[in-house]
Design a protein that fits this description.
By secondary structure, the protein is an alpha/beta fold. Bound molecules: glyoxylic acid and magnesium ion. Magnesium ion binds next to helix 7.
């Protein structure tokens, strides 16, 4: 362990995060009854400019009046480059009461963006005497944001999670795609050499670097890492594959841009019975090994050592968190 102890963000379930346009009151009502771990009421890109003031009012009303159960509740405000953002922050904090947990901050480019928002939130919270400090969930979705991802992750004690906003990221990096998430047929490798008759083409994951990079920054500063949208909500297998890839890299949840994606996300990001049993066996085997003064042993023909305990403990902790929440 480093001598630097990293403080962890508050533990929250974040397997599924439902995006709902706050311009549509009936969608907000449905979202309150959904199986999402986190719901974010969107004031940003799912809301047309003319609808922004009404969306803000709907969000305030929905936060105050709907029964959100034990869901984590968030509002995605507009970007710092718009004139909507200051009013989003002020109205939401002044008028929505204590139920809101988080603000989602889009298109963050530098640590100073977070500093500015922290300052504004702190002033409004102090002015209204808010008891609970709002946390920040930050979308990494621009080339500038990715270039500064470490400083952004470390920029405020309010920070709880980093999210990969694949659609804006593709636009910002000028990636040659018009899809929202998922693989691209042109991003692949060809096996073999010129002249081979059995060459095969395998699709690769064009988002691998971006998701990995964000995960490292998030975990280095004690934050959750969450994968963003998958646009084709008719493709549940595609969603599952993308969610699994992000999960294997260290994300602990994924957005749902349609309610049909919620149960998939909850399932993919909950450890299976087999995973939990295996993790418990690793912990037991390592306890025995330690008692015998050994640092490493074999289990089912594979080496396990002290690092395996930490991996297994993460898995068991996650399962306990899920059991406690259900
Ligand atoms: C999310 O906001 C995205 O741009 O993918
Ligand atoms: Mg975006």
């Amino acid at each position: 362990m480093s001598f630097t102890i990293v403080e962890q963000a508050p533990a929250r379930m974040n397997r599924s995060e439902l995006a709902v346009p706050a311009s549509k009151m009936r969608f907000l009502e449905k979202a309150a009854q959904s199986s999402a771990d986190v719901v974010f009421l969107d004031l940003e890109d799912a809301v047309a400019p003319d609808e922004k003031p009404q969306a803000r009012k709907n969000a305030i009303q929905a936060i105050q009046e709907l029964d959100w159960g034990d869901k984590t509740l968030s509002v995605r405000v507009n970007g710092l480059d718009t004139h909507y953002m200051y009013r989003d922050v002020i109205d939401i904090i002044e008028q929505s009461g204590e139920r809101l947990d988080l603000l989602m901050l889009p298109k963050i480019g530098t640590a100073s963006d977070i500093y500015a928002l922290d300052m504004l939130c702190t002033q409004v919270e102090d002015a209204v005497g808010r008891q609970k400090r709002l946390g920040f969930e930050i979308i990494i979705e621009t080339a500038l944001g990715m270039a500064n991802v470490d400083e952004i992750a470390a920029a405020s004690k309010r920070n709880e999670s980093l999210h990969f906003g694949v659609a804006d990221y593709a636009a910002s990096t000028q990636a040659r795609t018009t899809m929202i998430g998922g693989p691209h047929a042109d991003y692949g490798v060809l096996t073999g050499e010129a002249g081979d008759s059995d060459r095969q083409y395998h699709w690769g994951d064009m988002w691998h670097y971006a998701v990995s990079r964000m995960v490292v920054a998030a975990r280095a500063y004690g934050l959750r890492a969450v994968d963003g949208p998958f646009g084709d909500f008719s493709d549940s297998e595609g969603f599952r594959a993308q969610a699994n890839r992000a999960g294997v890299l260290g994300c602990e949840g994924k957005w749902a841009i349609h309610p049909s994606q919620l149960d998939l996300a909850n399932e993919v990001y909950s450890p299976s019975e087999a995973d939990i049993t295996k993790a418990k066996r690793i912990i037991e085997a390592m306890e025995e090994a330690t008692a015998q003064g050994l640092g490493a042993v074999s289990l089912d023909g594979r080496l396990i050592d002290i690092a395996s305990i930490k991996q297994a403990e993460n898995m068991v902790k996650k399962a306990e968190q899920i059991a406690a929440a259900s």
